[in-house]
Write a structure and sequence with these properties.
17 helices; elongated
Length: 243
């Protein structure tokens, strides 16, 4: 098993006998050691309510520590829940409160936020200007009008209108990093794309790179855990070493 500690760093897993002297079963100690945890760190995680190294690694990857994880555990949250709420801009306390109340982070809420923050109100006449740009680019009036009415700049909207993607869905896909041509070839509902990838715990900024490279959310999560980025994953797959 690959270990995650730095052998030259200040902390590294102690010898097995030190673990058993502190009350760890041999098999349990070996799992913590194999995951790269120092003894004091493992005890802190156990004291916070995380009793196995796998979940401790997941929580640590999600940005939590033994000192900050308790409220989220009490709310019944998993590491991926913490990631989703964080991506939506909620503090840990807000996330725990809302999760405990039965709420879930929904992509449609993100869409509303994106639409609100996308740009300041368009100046008078901007819609007509955008419409003119779209029509001049050969976009049919019926496809151009929704983009002009929702404040898209004409040149910005052209590839999305040509791809036949409505403005709201186009906004989500663009925020995820997709180009219009990539989004069209994706052939999936934008909200469902957002839901699927965020449910898997993949950060927004990486979704397009993984999807365009041909990886599923589960594959992306597995490769990210190994420290592999999308470009390297693409190369490894071409060489028969990733998937």
């Amino acid at each position: 098993m690959d270990t995650l500690f730095d052998p030259d760093g200040p902390e590294r897993p102690e010898d097995l006998h030190e673990w058993t002297a502190r009350g760890f079963e041999v098999g349990e100690a070996r799992r913590w050691i194999g995951a790269g945890f120092a003894l004091d760190d493992a005890e802190r995680w156990r004291g916070s309510g995380v009793y196995r190294p796998g979940p401790a690694l997941d929580w640590r990857t999600a940005g939590l520590t033994p000192y900050t994880v308790r409220p989220l555990l009490r709310a019944g949250m998993a590491p991926r829940d913490a990631v989703r709420w964080h991506e939506l801009g909620y503090t840990r306390a807000e996330a725990a409160e809302r999760h405990l109340a039965g709420e879930r982070p929904e992509p449609r809420g993100v869409l509303r936020r994106l639409l609100r923050r996308r740009r300041p109100p368009a100046p008078e006449g901007a819609g007509a200007e955008a419409m003119g740009v779209l029509l001049a680019a050969g976009v049919a009036a019926a496809a151009a009008r929704p983009f002009a009415d929702t404040g898209w700049a004409g040149a910005e909207a052209v590839p999305w209108a040509r791809a036949g993607i409505d403005p709201a869905r186009a906004l989500i896909l663009r925020e995820l990093g997709f180009a219009a041509a990539e989004a069209r070839s994706l052939g999936a509902d934008a909200v469902e794309v957002l839901r699927t990838w965020w449910d898997a715990g993949v950060p927004r900024g990486e979704v397009a790179a993984w999807a365009v490279a041909g990886f599923s959310p589960a594959e992306a999560v597995r490769l990210r855990a190994r420290g592999v980025d999308p470009e390297r994953a693409r190369v490894l797959r071409a060489l028969g070493g990733a998937g």
